[in-house]
Amino acid sequence: MSKDNLTKQEKDKIFNEELIPQADALYNFAYSLVFEEARAQDLVQEAYLKAYRFIHSFEPGSNAKAWLFQILKNAFINEYRKKSRQPQKVDFEDYKEKNQLEKQSLSIDIGQDVYTHMIGDEITGALNGLPVDFRVAIILSDIEGFTYEEIAKISDIPIGTVRSRLFRARNLMKEQLREYAKEKGFKELR
Amino acid sequence: MNKNHDCQDVVTQFNLMLDGALNQKEEQTVMCELQRCMHCLEEYNLEEKYRLFVKDRVEKKCASGEFIARLKDCMKGE
To answer: What is the pLDDT of residue A103?
Structure first.
């Protein structure tokens, strides 16, 4: 079968069997970027339309989820660029800073007991409070389970940057959780 | 604690391990290091707990059936 000449029926088959099953994950990702149902739906719809139009470049059985996430992330960036001159960036990416950070502290942790008393709203609030690049890193890695290579491709950044961004993102997240814990009256364990 | 044990390095390595970025042999090395240092083991246990916590408790939004139907409708015109 020539992939450039897929019939409508063949396209619909790939769409329904491989792309649509990713709708929940894709919508959750979109919502975490924009925090609005209507805008999230617009982003997802745009991503699916682009995917459908370029479906000949998709290899059936390959990683549909990563492909769709990449398309959606690009759609989000394009939307953002239309609204502001400067795309939102986080300046925590170079190795020098990463190395300094790793030397400053092993990791930021709060006690295990605190976790068991926290509810979803608090952890979701902590995640949503992160800058968008960090939020995306946590979602792609810790929630969706993408590999470093997949995250690098989706986010269009080097693997080393994925690692350093995840390191920073997780520590920021733990700082947020530590604040929640303090507000709840938990004592810091370290 | 082993003379050559570097806690900072072990933390970096077990984070890579939890991210699925190490091979089996590297994972075994990390696990050996964790057994040698209570501090590192404690850090590892906390990190593992944190990862599970985030994965399980972050609210996940779902696409409604109505929205999915609309998506399918959109493709009819393509």
So the answer is: 41
